[in-house]
Amino acid sequence: MNVSDARVDDGPVPEYRWVLPSVLLGDGGEGRPVRRSTRDWIVDVAVFLVACAITLLGLPEVQDEPAALLLTEQVAGALSCVSVWLRRRWPVALALVLMVVSTFLELAGGAGLVALFTVAVHRPFKVSGPMVLLYLATIPPYLLVRPQDGMEPLAWGIVVTAMLLTVYAWGIVVRARRQLIWSLRQRAASAAEEAKRLERERIAREMHDVLAHRISMLSLHAGALEFRPDAPAADVARAAGAIRASAHLALQDLRQVIGVLRHPGSGDGDGDGDGQVPERPQPTLADLPSLVEECRQAGMDVRLEQRADDAPDGLGRNVYRIVQEALTNARKHAAGQPVTVTVTGVPGAELSAEVRNPLGARHLPRIPGARAGLIGLAERAELAGGRLEHGPTPEGEFVVRARLPWPEKETAEPMAERAAGERS
């Protein structure tokens, strides 16, 4: 159901997340016209019929009264039942009027109970609480004006009090239920918005990690062609081929991300049968040598020292992205400088990735950046339960160092022993 089409006790409401709880609980506001939905009409007709039924049940009690008083009772009872249709627009005012009338006239009691119920449902406790106390305060004068034959005043007072408190408690329960439903809907809407935000951040992070790497490769090769126009034809052809390959890979990555954004479960595009766009295989720690080789082919001087190969896929993917972004930053800010990548770690301790390069010369042109790469890496490391350190060193180098927890891998034998113990 569309949020803008949602209806509550007072009719259609505006955008859901901006609606006050009182409006969602049927509080249309004093004196404001009320637009009833089909459900509202059904409820109002039912309430009107209940008020009429209670009034008709009270007719035998007033048959022996004088003609003038009997006519007054009948007119007041009819008008009270009709006034129930105003309960949504003026609930508090209607309840006060009917409270006074029902204190002296028997046939207005049914409409008074309906008015009290309406206030309990549509108004907070700071309004409905004093209202029910006023109703209870009218019981003694009612007992004096309307004594019941064959019943002690105390017993009749207990019956009337029980009726008022039961109707009020029912209204409070209805209001509490509506508040609970409203709260659950708000939580669901907030959870949906949070899920969308996290997914957007994930896609943005992946786009930055992948496209920044591809585009920096394009810039590097294009810069080489710009500064070496007299290069041999073979070198020019090789650089042009690298530019074409990097552009093709960048377009592929961009097309997949746009496909995810454009067809989220709709079944269109290139997705599979259930409408989900298939994700391309994610890199792991085993793909680091290929990344380093790609950078070397682009002209970078990169040395890899990898002493950890069997990390879990999720952990390896985080390390791969961190190294990829660090190499991209090295190409941007320290072009032509040697870069050392060191990956070490053991299960049960941590996996460490360090990218180290001399600080670049300040007079060399640099590839512009969004200054969001290191922030994204820090967030990725924190989400993985680790930490990221980066900055210049006294030796004149720039270091990016990530330390991520590496849970100890369970062997098959302990797992089998634990399963046997659970079965026993």
Set out the fold topology.
Elements (H helix, E strand, L loop, with lengths): L6 E2 L2 E2 L8 H4 L13 H20 L1 H4 L4 H17 L7 H14 L4 H14 L2 H13 L1 H7 L7 H75 L5 H30 L25 H10 L4 E5 L6 H21 L5 E7 L4 E9 L14 H11 L3 E6 L4 E9 L6 H12 L1
Parallel strand pairs: 3-4
Antiparallel strand pairs: 1-2, 4-5, 5-7, 6-7
Helix pairs in contact: 2-4, 2-6, 4-6, 5-6, 5-7, 6-7, 6-9, 7-9, 8-9, 9-10, 9-12, 12-13
Structure description:
The protein is of the alpha+beta class and 424 residues long. The chain folds into 2 domains: 3-190, no CATH class; 284-424, 2-Layer Sandwich (Heat Shock Protein 90). It is built from 14 helices and 7 strands. The protein has helices at residues 21-24, 38-57, 59-62, 67-83, 91-104, 109-122, 125-137, 139-145, 153-227, 233-262, 288-297, 313-333, 373-383, 412-423; strands at residues 7-8, 11-12, 302-306, 339-345, 350-358, 387-392, 397-405. Strands 3-4-5-7-6 form a 5-stranded mixed sheet, with helices on one face. Strands 1-2 form a two-stranded antiparallel sheet. Helix 9 (153-227) runs antiparallel to helix 10 (233-262) and helix 9 (153-227) crosses helix 12 (313-333). The longest helix is centred in the middle third of the chain and has 75 residues, at 153-227. The protein is rod-shaped, with a radius of gyration of 38 Å.
